[in-house]
Amino acid sequence: MLLFLLCSRKPVGLELGHATITNHQGLLCPNCTHLTLKVEFSTAMVEHEYIVAFKGYFTAKARSKFISSALKNSDVVDWKIIPRDNPASDYPSDFEVVQIKEAHRDGLLTLQDHPHIKRVTPQRKVFRTLKFTHSADEVVPCNDTRWTQKWQSSRPLRRTSLSLGSGFWHATGRHSSRRLLRAIPRQVAQTLQADVLWQMGYTGAGVKVAVFDTGLGEKHPHFKNVKERTNWTNEKTLDDGLGHGTFVAGVIASMRECQGFAPDSELHVFRVFTNNQVSYTSWFLDAFNYAILKKIDVLNLSIGGPDFMDHPFVDKVWELTANKVIMVSAIGNDGPLYGTLNNPADQMDVIGVGGIDFEDNIARFSSRGMTTWELPGGYGRVKPDIVTYGSGVRGSGIKGGCRSLSGTSVASPVVAGAVTLLASTVQNRELINPASMKQALIASARRLPGVNMFEQGHGKLDLLKAYQILNSYRPQASLSPSYIDLTECPYMWPYCSQPIYYGGMPTIVNVTILNGMGVTGRIVDKPIWQPYLPQNGDSIEVAMSYSHMLWPWSGYLAVSITVAKKAALWEGIAQGHVMVVVASPAENDSETGAEQTSTVKLPVKVKIIPTPPRSKRVLWDQYHNLRYPPGYFPRDNLRMKNDPLDWNGDHIHTNFRDMYQHLRSMGYFVEVLGAPITCFDASQYGTLLMVDSEEEYFPEEIIKLRRDIDNGLSLIVFSDWYNTSVMRKVKFYDENTRQWWMPDTGGANIPALNDLISVWGMAFSDGLYEGDFSMANHDMYYASGCSIAKFPQDGIVIAQTLKDQGLEVLKQETTVVDNVPILGLYQTPSEGGGRIALYGDSNCIDDSHRQKDCFWLLDSLLQYTSHSVMPPSLSHSENRQRPPTVSEHPLPERLEDCNRMDLPLAQAAMSPGPEQFSETCERQPLPVVIIGNGPSAICLSYFLSGHRPYVRKGAVHPNPILQRKLQDIAGSSVVEQDLEFLSEGLEGRSHNPLAVLFDALVRPDGDLGGMAESVLTWRLEPKHLVPHLVLGKGPPGGAWHSIEGSMFTLSLGDWMELPGLHFRDWMRRKRKNLRNDRATTRDIAQYYEHYVKVLGLQQRFVCGTVVTSVKPLLSSSAEEDRVEPLTASRKLYEIQGFHQTAAGLQSPFCIHAENVVLATGTYDSPAWLGADGEDLPYVFHKISDLETALQKQRLGPDSDPVLIVGAGLTAADAVLTARHSNVPVIHTFRRAVSDSGLVFNQLPKMMYPEYHKVHQMMTEQSLTSSGPYKGYSSLPKHHVARFSADKKCVLEDASGKRTVFNISMAFILIGSNPNLSFLPSHGKHLALDPEQPVNSRRNPIDTNPFTYESVQEPGLYALGPLAGDSFVRFLQGGALAVTASLLKKRNVDLMD
Ligand SMILES: Cc1cc2nc3c(=O)[nH]c(=O)nc-3n(C[C@H](O)[C@H](O)[C@H](O)COP(=O)(O)OP(=O)(O)OC[C@H]3O[C@@H](n4cnc5c(N)ncnc54)[C@H](O)[C@@H]3O)c2cc1C
After folding, report:
1. Residues in domain Membrane-bound transcription factor site-1 protease-like N-terminal (predicted)?
2. Ligand 1: which residue has its CA nearest to atom 16?
């Protein structure tokens, strides 16, 4: 985590690296106190040190025992626990810092696998230095006049003094050079009218407030109630050597001179920064634990950073608020740029504070919204929560007297002080919690005029109004923002800046639900959209996603708004509201299960216009833009070494805001594409705008874009640098300094972009250029851009003279290069085809570190692409030159050994590519086609891509016989072994020996409840790649995308993982937790989709593809030689089907393959009862139909009961779903409730409380015996005799007695069968019993247990449930078997 104190002092000179910018301002203002500020910050992982977090609080002895027992089984010998001598040492703790000398990943994994260990993360060290010169702590006299100030841009205007030497990447400073021109201080507490509350006798008494900062000197004259000073650093002092901590404490609790808000509060001073402003994550964790122990009420944290993925830190913040600690934190000093909110202030449960000056202007330095960590989910959230004075605020000097500081680290204690004071005014302190306090602050905040919500949040702190609200507070839920008015400008910017229209991308508003009723809560039923019909509410469609559980104190409600078709030509305002009911366990009554509820309304108002013409609509590709964290993406401008990470989201409402505003002012409508290219209707848009993309492209995206452009869409690409040598230099820096990581791309991912544009004969180079030039009479600056390496000969190319920045970075040589092609314009040849414009640098449209804007160029390019008007200034430019055909620089290749390296290698070996995908079958046959794209196919694709399992060195398997066999195969891959021999004698919960073998290797003692580490390690060996293609209907993940997302898996979350990506790690990165170690089905679906991406398999996956026929053929050689019987190697398969286009069209395809793997699962064809009337329209066979009926409100509490048939888990899920919406249920099934074969009787109660509940209901509440479950009746040992058209259902019991029931709908949930309709006779001839249909349990496909090849049809394989492996943990053994078999065949072919 990058932690740095968020304070900007009034600097008049700034040292940047070795250069000092001269202080002109200082000369102008001789009477002011002048300080020179040198800011240095960086974050570093501490070599060999790891934070080991436990699953609970344990004594030091127990912690040590866990760690030694975990490491006993590993190769790690040289390790020790780092002693921590601080006030928390006497108490149990939930973490330990361990030093492991060897660079041993396996050791870390062993630790991670210990049942009491939650996670292992590197220890981080944080630096920041403020160096005051002249009068660092000069005491200024008090007076009460105001500050006025001007801020100067933090971006250097001249670049001459920045050297690009060997220290290129050292972070030597961060924004600043902000200058104070004239400053006259003011008393902040009185300005906010704290004195009114003081006069009423409220002064903070009885409230415990903690200051996490640089400490406080003993006997400081300003403080009367310092309860405790604690030191968490490695310096043996409690005193403040810097003055920052004293200042912050003073703003909160000083009793004299520059008076704080709550002088009688109990002050707890936590010294977490050294005098050199160094800190470690572990210091914070200990100090946070201690704060929980001490029952701190309010905690000020004037720190922040962009790393929202420092999990130990962020989790601890959640734990603090869950323990009722009100966290107040500074939002960051990275304004005025948007998308610069810092963590943890950007969290829902933390009060994030921005800064204003005493004129009520938003301070220039104050970070602006939206939250960027939520962007992949659709859109960010409104933050800061609130703003208050942060410029020239007076607070306590280090020894006494007063001084002034600026920054959001100053605004934060203003709010923390106010919160402390407010808390002391409330009689019933039980009512005060992080949510209720935040609710009071934001409900009372005063809206600043002319300022938008991403700048001011809810507005300026109003202490007295907050006091009034808090003192009449009743526990309730509330929403932030409390309404959605897309017409309200400027407050609702960016929403108000563009009306909505039919066919546009959904507008997403991310609303925070605050729950003042309790730390946990839930949303009752579902939020409901209520259109106001007289106000045209039915002209919009509103969809919602929301957190089912609210914890701690908060949750989300994402509202997605689109225009209804009927309003496509209409203009006007539409209104309605969303209604949410929140329930929380009643205070002190959690035992009885009683709940309190609160209903909140979210008014919605939008402006609708007729859909604009295509030429005016620009689509911004957000999907392929990535940012730090989780990946390390270097800045686009390499000179910006002070702020090297690309962390602002690259969104039109963050760092591309100026560009967006410009396009709006030019009359364009800009929409955001948050999904792959395959997911939009290109006929709606004039131009697709791709700027600085970092992500890879799916093959079907490449195909789709080509078609779209052929059909008239145009494309503008603003690219950036990508040079592997420069990237390696960054990596080099990483290794030597133990900082940073390997970058995931350069400024942009040019190899991926080149894949996208190569079809038109275009490519960017790996050249890296920089310099000033003039184009079409505009001054331009090229900031670390690339050149165009190839361009069609009939295109227009413009070149410039630039400096070779690559050489400068790598060799410190300055070379000027003439005729560097940087801009290209091209009309594609197909009739009605679109146009393409490429430019090699994005800095000129990016707000972060932009030197000179080039919006004029964007206008000209859009004139060309969207309106087909060639700007003469470009076509007749004197810098026009012949398009390059051969680049001076080679085309960039993906950086080796970075995450994405396996992709090009795989491609080189042979990618099926789009050309394999055509209507006719004239192409070369593929070695393997996999049908289905669920976990079976994904796992097999991983193996076939060259990932090979080896036995990990030093691994010991608990099964001694297997261990002996494994010892013998050390050094060669498991794939090459005699798998039959290895699996001999093993027993497990699958009938397939290789399923048991693979499971035993990966989870050596899984069935015993142990967590022993896998004995396998994986290596990527591209030479063993088997070219293949995966065809599937939906996104990668198969059935998991069809299962209702909020349900919990039956298996442990870890058991659903596939090799190479730990599920737990992935969950952690998503900041999610497992419940009872189980995950939701949505998590699993997302994990598989992500898996395919990060492991570089996506080139092999063609989604949206339905296979309709697979038939064996004779190969041509066999046809010539008809008398010979078919052999496996001679057989070919013809696979036919269609590919669903984004526009909903079906394009047919045909492929030939030597081998076909059936991995189509069993989920697609639900089983039927065979009862009369089962095909009536109110009888359904999928649980998703129940969800749809509930969503569309076709069912409700007053409906006739729904009939649910079945006693499996899906039926149980249906019971729970219906009950959740208070819909009455009749539940019938054939067996007795006590039948040992019922799945409920096999599930441990603790692990599966929800299924246990259903079982209890099934047992206790039959028709005859009434139980506590109103609206539910169970009918065991019954079957359905028939359904009739008047919605009557006849049920029959074991004795033949029939009863008639009126029902609203029936759901037959008794399992499903595979759909093999694409095979002759539905594949029956392949089954164990060829007389019966294929069934995963009773009649799977008859395969060789050691190859999974069909016994009847060589060349045809079956995986997963089709071969009898119904659980994900077992189907992987099948993938191993198929891989081994295919490799063997391949080797035989090669030998032939
Ligand atoms: C409600 C439910 C809960 C479950 N819980 C668990 C659990 O907790 N633990 C566990 O291990 N397993 C669980 N399973 C089982 C698990 O889903 C399967 O074992 C697993 O998904 C099988 O993977 P697969 O890749 O073989 O098939 P699937 O995941 O079924 O994927 C096959 C894909 O192929 C596609 N397809 C089918 N026909 C065609 C065609 N003609 N053309 C193109 N594509 C086609 C299908 O649409 C499907 O998307 C559960 C299953 C269900 C239904």
Report:
1. 45-124
2. 1367
